TrEMBL record:
Residues 33-139 form the DNA mimic protein DMP19 C-terminal domain. This is DUF4375 domain-containing protein. It comes from the Bacteria. It comes from Paenibacillus solisilvae. The lineage of its organism: Bacteria, Bacillati, Bacillota, Bacilli, Bacillales. InterPro entries: DMP19_C. Gene3D superfamilies: 1.20.1420.60.
Length: 145
C-alpha cells in the first residue's frame, strides 16, 4: 500500500484534501491491503459508484458476488440499512439464475434494457441519506484530526 501523507499547511488551506485522500485510498488500493475500517469504506464506495454509474447489473458484472455478505455488512456499519436491504434483494435476484458474463457493451445494454434490476436501482437512487453522505460521516468518525 502506498502511504499517503498530507501536508498540514495544505490541509489548513484546503481541508477537503483529507476527503480526497480518503477517496483515493479506498478507491485505488487493493482490498487485501486495507485495514478493516478502510475495507468497510472500500466496499461501500465501490457498491455506490457502480450502481450510480450503471445500476445493480453493472455492479454485479464488475464486482461479482464474492464479497456480497461483507458488502451488506459494511453498508450496515456506515448506517446504510436501506441500501443494505436493497443489495440483499438485488443479489438474491442476481443469484437466482445462471448467468453468462456480459462480454461487451452491446450485451450489457441488451441485458440492462430487460429492466430486471430497475426496481432496485430506482429504490437505491431514492434512498436517503445517500451512501456518499454516510461515507462522509464515517470518514469524520475515523479521520485523524
Amino acid at each position: 500500500m502506498v502511504i499517503r501523507k498530507i501536508n498540514k499547511e495544505l490541509l489548513d488551506k484546503k481541508p477537503y484534501e483529507a476527503w480526497n485522500a480518503f477517496i483515493d485510498l479506498i478507491a485505488m488500493e487493493e482490498y487485501k491491503d486495507l485495514n478493516q475500517t478502510q475495507r468497510t469504506a472500500h466496499l461501500c464506495f465501490w457498491y455506490d459508484t457502480e450502481v450510480q454509474n450503471g445500476g445493480h447489473l453493472q455492479y454485479f458484472e464488475n464486482k461479482g458476488i464474492e464479497k456480497m455478505d461483507e458488502t451488506i455488512d459494511a453498508l450496515k456499519v456506515i448506517g446504510a440499512a436501506k441500501q443494505a436491504n436493497i443489495l440483499n434483494q438485488a443479489s438474491a435476484t442476481y443469484s437466482s439464475k445462471n448467468r453468462k458474463k456480459l462480454n461487451d457493451i452491446f450485451a450489457f445494454v441488451n441485458e440492462a434494457r430487460c429492466g430486471e434490476f430497475e426496481e432496485y436501482d430506482n429504490e437505491y437512487y431514492n434512498s436517503e441519506p445517500t451512501v456518499t453522505d454516510l461515507l462522509g460521516e464515517y470518514f469524520e468518525i475515523y479521520s485523524v484530526n
